[in-house]
Amino acid sequence: MLKPGEEQRSMSTLKLRLLKKLKCTLKYEKLAWAEGAQLVAGVDEVGRGALFGPVVAAAVILRPDYRIRGLRDSKLLLPEVREVLAARIREHCIAYAIASVDAARIDEINIYWASVEALAMAVKKLQPAPDHVLVDALKIDVDCKQTKIIHGDALSCSIAAASIIAKVERDHWMRDFEAQYPLYGLASNKGYSTPKHKAVLREHGPSPLHRQSFAPVWMAQADHAPDLFTELQQQVEGPSVPDTPDLLPVAVSL
Q1: CATH of span 22-171
Q2: How large a percentage of the chain has pLDDT more than 90?
């Protein structure tokens, strides 16, 4: 029987194997163009499962007459390949935009709604505005028509482009945060839940930019919280009085 951590790694491995088998094409973009859409945007987010920092979304409108080779789900690409592709996307796309929702907002509304909010913000920042949006498995609050696609970042070139832009941007932010919070290894773990990251959380507690509503973070916070019961008990009982020796009877002469 697999332990919880081993089971999670096994599921992640199976998902990556599935994603590798999927083919990233312009199928969904062509369907939207055939329906009359002129500006088709793909939108995706990264950082949803991280313990630290914002969730970051990007939206991209690709040019129909220019094919960027190598587009696929950002999780399947080496960091150096993502950097090259991100530069090509920014250079050759019609438009791209980036939006983020910070840890405080994530704690306030939860990560699902924070992701939806970031995706909608990215689409609304696009200039020119799209008339059709392809979304990776979610429905978002935008004015134009949208198509949600399961495993969209592995099937749609536009969503894959958005995932690459968002991933590269967020990774840059994590490297910048490394200088501010060097304890947590953010340049390497990108804020995600690695054994070393969790060990540092348990030893030193979270930073102000950790997601306080995520279990590994609030559990670490609890480990470093004062014992409130003991403090209250001490306040009720008042300061302790040192023991004094019993007084001996004194003989009084009359």
Answers
A1: 3.30.420.10
A2: 76
